[in-house]
C-alpha cells in the first residue's frame, strides 16, 4: 500500500523565493502544454504526444530567450508538471468513455498564480535526500528545515512541496508500506451517519457531532468582515486574505485530526465495518448544505475504507436506497416515511426503536447479508491512502473535545 506522509516545512526567505520560482516554472510549462493541445485540437491536428510536449516545451524552450529561465529550476519539476497534465487528460478521456466511475471529469484548466494551492514534485531522478541533520535537500533549492514528528517507514519514491492558501509549506512523501493486520475480533458494527449525532453505532454508541465550522463561525465572520473593508489590490487586503485562510485551515486540520482518531478507534475495535453510501453531493444542494459540509462524511468514510484495508478489516457500503430508517430491525416490516423530527417510533410488532440506532442495526445486517451473498467475508483489496492519511498538522487544535459515548483520545 502506498501512504502519504506529510510534514510541516520551514523554508528560509531565500528558499521561499526559489520555491516561488519553481512553482511559477511548473505552472508555465503546464499551461503551455494545455494551450498547445487545445490549439492542435481546434486546428484539427492529431493529439500532441507526451514525448513531443516534453521536447518542445522543455528541451527546445530552454534554448529560446523567452523561456531561458526554465533552466533555473530542476528539470524533474518541469517533467512532473507535464505528467500532471497527462494524468488530467487521461482522467477526462476515461470519464467520457465511461471507464472511470463517479462524477464526470472536465477538461484540464489553466493554472493561476492566484490558486490557493501551489505544488511541485520531485521524484528519485531529482536525487532529493533526507540528510542526517534532519533536513531535506532539494535540487536548486537547498536544505529545507522539516519538522519530523515520526520516521518514514521506508525510502520515499517522491516528495511534493506544497504551499497552501495560509502560506504554510508542507513536504509530502509517498512511501510503500506493508499491511499491518490487527488481531481478529468478533465484533462487527454498522454506522448511521447524521448531523445531530455524527455517527451512531449499531451497539447503541452515539458520537456527538463536533461542528467545528459552526464553533468557528463568529471568528470567521469577523475576519471576513475585515477582509471586505480592505481596498482591492492593497497590501492590507493580502494580509487579511491570509488571516481568513489560516482560520479555515485550523478548522480543516482540527476536523481531520478528530476524524482520524475516531476512525482508528472504530477500526481497531471491530472486525467489520458497514456504512451507508450517502449521496453527499445531492445533500450539499439542500438547505442543510453547510451542516453537511461541516460534518465531512465523505472524508470520514474514506479513512475507514483505507484503514480497513491496511489493518486487515472488512469494510462495505450499503446501498443508499436501502430503507434503513423505516425498517424494523426486529420483524423486518417497512413502515411509512417519517419526518426528521421523529427520533423514536413504535412498530406494530410491539418493538420500540430509537431512529438512529435502528438504522445502524439495519445497516450492519444489510452489509453482512451482502457479503454473505457474494460468498464470504472477503478482505477487500488494498486501496491508496486518502490525502494526508499519515500527515502531521502542528497547527491543529492540541486537544480534541470529548464526544458522547466513545473516546477517541
From TrEMBL:
Q: Name one Pfam family in it.
A: OrfB_IS605
- Please give the residue ranges the record annotates as the region Disordered: 376-409
Instruction: List, for all copies, the residue spans of the domain called Transposase putative helix-turn-helix.
Output: 1-46
Gene Ontology terms, MF aspect: DNA binding; metal ion binding
Query: Where do Basic and acidic residues bias regions lie?
Result: 386-398
Q: Where is the Probable transposase IS891/IS1136/IS1341 domain?
A: 174-285
Identify the keywords attached in UniProt to this record, alphabetized: DNA recombination, DNA-binding, Metal-binding, Transposition, Zinc
- The answer to keyword Zinc applying to this record is yes
**Which GO BP terms sit in this record?**
DNA recombination; transposition
Q: Where is the Cas12f1-like TNB domain?
A: 297-363
Spell out the PANTHER family in the cross-references: RNA-GUIDED DNA ENDONUCLEASE INSQ-RELATED, TRANSPOSASE
Q: Which NCBIfam families does this UniProt record tie to the protein?
A: guided_TnpB
Family classification: In the N-terminal section; belongs to the transposase 2 family. In the C-terminal section; belongs to the transposase 35 family.
Q: What is this protein called?
A: Putative transposase
Species this chain originates from: Micromonospora echinaurantiaca
